[in-house]
Design brief:
By secondary structure, the protein is mainly alpha-helical. The chain is 78% helix and 0% strand.
Length: 529
């Protein structure tokens, strides 16, 4: 091989093929990202242990609680994840995470001052916008800190924060609520009751963590893969372009700028999603749920069509890739049932089995943290192990995370025995968690380095607008319309499993072919490689 070719070829150290060691700083930085994600899910999941108190104090029903936890958060998390994912691909990811962390922590604390459902909804929307900065930045950073052979493991370690934070939230929330209400039975300082104090107790520490995050060093984008990407001289131009492409009604002007055909298509999309939202509202009687989701789905449609016109290579490798869609939608069905079970587990045990909040924190929350941590770490490691032996190895792990939790969920939500409930909840959490690292790494493997932040945002569209936006609400709606039967509500979400099975079986064939042809497909779409 000539010297010129030697210079052009990525080194083994860059690609991660022959690298034996990962720098200690990468592991340190990953540990900080895990702490961020722990706090992310404490702030998000604490709503579970507080649900029954909020229901009693604000006079709302289970369908609203499902909407508050799922859709109100998910739509804004998903929509703002798109421009923030673009910003993560062009700006300093460390700074972006720190700003987002400060925002969502502030909005969590402000949730503690809510006196009605509307105020609490607005605060949770703010939490969703802030948290949308975290994973696009983190996934991109991890892909630049760790070689390809270890990315599923590293992403799984990062993702363990989801389960640790979700579990700890029940423990913290239970202890704060019961101790606060015992000390201040008629309301404490500023008239705050236990659930409000709990929001404050988990929101304020995030402001200090945001300062720590700023001390991390930004890695060189793409260097580890031998595809070094120069800094964007105008990083915010792409952010604002995406923002105006995804936020209605600016989406109409964005479509008009692309031509008459694009405008007509956009208006037809708006009419379709408006009609769908109106129909579902009339069928269910729940206006906010379908208004938010209708706007969300229309906005994503508008953005995807705009992306096709502005950045065809990225569109082709994401929305235009059947392999990518099968992965994100297949994992979305895993999230559909997992989010419903994890959110409604504490309210169900409190109502149906008579368990108090402190016991739920110790025997449901703490084991859930362990279960999720074990599941996501072992699943990520198994995904990397299987990938070395078969091209579709990671997809098999996602399939495992879809199918194996189903019997455990059935056990947990049909038994009258508290111990069996805890065992079923533990197993369901651990087994479903196994899929996350594999799904995340699979989505990253199907795009170029410069597209990773946006690919992450697209990946989370499925987990939020399908999993989080529909799963908890469906469980709450079925419960509210069947005499507060949370058992029936949670089990109704198992209907998503057959759809996920079909998608992931298709992915077994599609993903290996797509992963092996990323550069070629990007070049064919006009990428200057």
């Amino acid at each position: 091989m000539s010297q010129a070719n030697d210079a052009a070829a990525p080194t083994e150290a860059a690609t991660g093929v022959g690298a034996d060691k990962v720098p200690a700083y990468s592991w340190y930085a990953l540990s900080v990202l895990v702490l961020i994600y722990v706090l992310n899910f404490i702030d998000r999941q604490i709503l579970s242990i507080l649900a029954n108190d909020i229901k009693a104090d604000l006079g709302v029903e289970d369908d609203y609680l499902g909407f508050l936890y799922g859709t109100a958060f998910a739509v804004f998390y998903a929509l703002f994840g798109i421009p923030l994912g673009r910003l993560a691909d062009s700006w300093k990811r460390i700074r972006l995470m720190s700003i987002g962390l400060a925002l969502w922590s502030t909005m969590t604390a402000l949730s503690g001052f809510a006196k009605n459902a509307t105020t609490l909804t607005v605060a949770r929307i703010g939490v969703g916008v802030g948290e949308a900065t975290a994973s696009p930045s983190a996934y991109s950073l991890i892909s630049d800190w760790f070689p390809a052979r270890l990315r599923a493991t590293a992403l799984a370690i990062y993702s363990s924060g989801l389960y640790i934070g979700g579990g700890i939230s029940l423990l913290i929330g239970g202890l704060v609520v019961e101790n606060w209400n015992a000390a201040y039975p008629d309301g404490g300082p500023l008239g705050l009751v236990g659930w409000q104090a709990a929001f404050l107790s988990v929101g304020l520490p995030g402001l200090a963590l945001a300062l720590w995050v700023l001390t991390l060093r930004e890695p060189v984008r793409g260097a580890i893969d031998g595809l070094m990407t120069p800094e964007d001289p105008e990083p915010f131009r792409g952010f604002f372009r995406e923002l105006f492409q995804v936020i209605p009604p600016f989406t109409i002007f964005g479509a008009a700028a692309r031509g008459t055909g694009a405008l007509v298509l956009n208006l037809l999309g708006a009419a379709f999603f408006a009609a769908l939202a109106w129909t579902l509202w009339r069928l269910t009687g729940v206006f906010e749920q379908w208004l938010f989701l209708g706007v969300g789905y229309y906005a994503v449609f508008s953005w995807a069509m705009g992306l096709r016109a502005r950045d065809l290579p990225t569109f082709k490798l994401t929305w235009g890739s059947p392999a990518f869609l099968c992965i994100i939608l297949g994992y979305g069905t895993v999230a559909f049932t997992a989010y419903a079970a994890s959110y409604w587990g504490a309210p169900y045990a409190e109502r149906a089995l008579g368990v108090n909040k402190t016991d739920l924190g110790w025997f449901l929350g703490a084991p859930a943290a362990v279960a999720g941590f074990l599941g996501v770490i072992l699943g990520g490691r198994m995904a990397d192990y299987l990938l070395e032996r078969r091209p579709a190895g990671r997809v098999w792990v996602i399939l495992f995370g879809l199918v194996t939790p189903l019997p455990a969920m059935w056990l947990a939500y049909t038994t009258d025995d508290v111990v069996l409930f805890y065992i079923g909840a533990f197993l369901a959490q651990m087994l479903s968690a196994a899929a996350l690292g594999a799904a995340a790494a699979s989505s990253q493997a199907l795009v170029l380095p410069r597209m990773r932040g946006l690919a992450t945002a697209t990946f989370f569209l499925a987990t939020t607008l399908i999993g989080l936006g529909l799963g908890p609400f469906m469980a709450g709606y079925v419960s509210a319309t069947n005499g507060d039967d949370l058992s029936l509500g949670v089990l109704s979400t198992l209907v998503a499993a057959p759809f996920g099975l079909v998608l992931l079986i298709a992915a077994l064939k599609l993903v290996p072919q797509a992963a092996a042809s990323v550069v070629e497909r990007a070049r064919a779409a006009g990428e200057p490689i």
